[in-house]
Amino acid sequence: MTADRPPLAEGVPDRLYGRQRGHKLRPRQQLLLDATLPRLRLLPEQAADPLAAFGMPGAKLWLEVGFGGGEHALEQHRAHPEVAYIASEVFENGLCSLLTRLVPDGGEATAPLPPGLKLWPQDARHLLGLLPEGALDRLMLMFPDPWPKSRHSKRRFVHPEMLPLVARVLRPGGEWRIASDDPTYQAWVTEVFADQALFALAERHTTRPEGTPGTRYEAKAVRAGRQPIWWVFVRR
């Protein structure tokens, strides 16, 4: 075990599944990872006092797990500049997609960066193990990989063994927001949250709630005729 890899809950595989890189990175993308990402990165040793890393004492702290192309994360951050926002993603092409929206070509090492945004380019489950108890006001999981085969259910972020880990870092009354267009994952979310005492269902929507930015995954689902569902679960 290293300082940035605390043990996960029993039954949660300590292995990151899915791609970390897609097509070969272009020179601009590699420069963003080399010069811009370190300027925005939340370091493991900063996770014990995350608001100090932001320089935003007393602010609300939100975490988005698996931000994909970054559309949702950036719109949420820009709509809530008073919030300290951690956006987590391991897929390098997704990280580059977000970073390219933040700095102009040629400004990778020098352009000003938003003070209320930090990136966690590692497994978000380990960040949950490093954050203090009750640190988060909101956790967002927007259209995660559904891992539709039943034998892969342990790879899903929503999992019975994950609930205590999330509950530890969400303050009482804090929100866990989830969205999915996959029928298997939708049924799984309903099943997992039906038999537990840590979270209460506060909202369930079949149209995107007001104040929730759209994503490319939602648009793709709608074009394919799939019905997304949005949930808000509140920490008891």
UniProtKB/TrEMBL annotation:
What does the record give as the function of this protein? Catalyzes the formation of N(7)-methylguanine at position 46 (m7G46) in tRNA.
**Residues bound to S-adenosyl-L-methionine:** 64, 89, 123, 145
Q: In which pathway does it act?
A: tRNA modification; N(7)-methylguanine-tRNA biosynthesis
Known EC number: 2.1.1.33
Reaction equation(s) it catalyzes: guanosine(46) in tRNA + S-adenosyl-L-methionine = N(7)-methylguanosine(46) in tRNA + S-adenosyl-L-homocysteine
Per its UniProt entry, which superkingdom is the organism in? Bacteria
Its source organism is Falsiroseomonas tokyonensis
Q: Where is this region: Disordered?
A: 1-23
Q: What class of enzyme is it?
A: transferase
Protein name from the UniProt record = tRNA (guanine-N(7)-)-methyltransferase
- The residues that hold substrate are 149, 181, 215-218
Among Pfam families, the record links this protein to: Methyltransf_4
Task: State the family named in the UniProt similarity comment for this chain.
Answer: Belongs to the class I-like SAM-binding methyltransferase superfamily. TrmB family.
Keyword terms, alphabetized? Methyltransferase, S-adenosyl-L-methionine, Transferase, tRNA processing
